[in-house]
Design a protein that fits this description.
two-stranded antiparallel sheet; 12 helices; 36% helix; 16% strand; alpha/beta; 14 strands
Amino acid sequence: MNHTPDTDDQLRRSLGVGRRRFLSTCTAVAAGAIAAPVLGASPVQAAPRSAGTGRGHTLVPADKRGIILYTVRDAIGRDPLTTSLPSGFRAVFEQLARFGYRQVEFAGYGQHANAPGGASLESVQGAKLLRRWLDDNGLRAQGNHGFIPGSWPFTSADLDTFKKHLEIANILGLPHMGTGGDPTASSYKADWDVAADKWNALGAIARRAGLKLYTHNHDAAYSFLLDGGPLDAQGKPTRSSGIRKLEYFLSITDPKLVWLEMDVFWAHVAQYKFRTYTAHDGSTQTNVFDPAGLVTRNNKRYPLFHAKDGVVNATNGMGYDMVPFGTGVIDYTTFFSRVGDRNYHNPMVEQDNAPSTTNPGQSLEHAAIGYRNLAALRR
């Protein structure tokens, strides 16, 4: 999508913002791209970013450019009777399609009660409405952060709810269904073994329904598994063999039943945070996490990504602050080049902090910026 002053004016008018505020927003997010080192990056990850000049190989094909609706959750949830801004699923789909997006990922099926279809579309009838609006706007839904049973073994009520979500997913045409949380918050091997059994069982049910089950992960899932060494007072291991928790999960789950969605921002936070571990013999070992390397070793296990950007902040404990996609320092040109398979992976722009209490149009403004920068990635 090539933007001219005319198309920028159309964009700001559709968002209901004045020209001064639109330009100030674009200037502010561009300022976040001031050159800074990629924290903890290996030399290949820290390669110069593409200038996005339009030359070279497009890294994310047009039909693979997506966004998770969590980014614009305030727009979906606001009352259309009180604003001229896009509100509710139908209007937000229309706006995202105007930006150029061709894919979305759901983060639940709730919206404002005054939006077309009512407050909850988590039903067969609601899914039919959503599917119609997706089709009307040339959008395909790739997945949903929805219901995953917490109990194991499963209760009959949990299984019924899970199967209802599978039915909704099929109506929407989702190839994937998943959750926004890690398989377990534990650091212990025994708990990850239980989580793997649960996910293999759920994955088998999803596969029979024609869907791929996926887990979306945050930084903690890339910390080191405690699997040996002296035991603590509760009889639990206190040291590590150097295996990261999610790497272990990948090794013990069935690749035909369980898939993953890498949030590239949180993977880089893990690269910053989890660099050393205490080995079984008590020595301190260094092991710097390589997000793209994990994907390349397990490429077909990663049909989905969250494309989320950050600028360096060495004071917040994470190493980065979130900013609109393409205005930070995470090297997506190198990341997408390394993982390859551009017609297989589905990157979803995400920005947790896009909604604003003072600028109601901000999340959609940032969604537009994210699309432009995703489309501009070249190798």
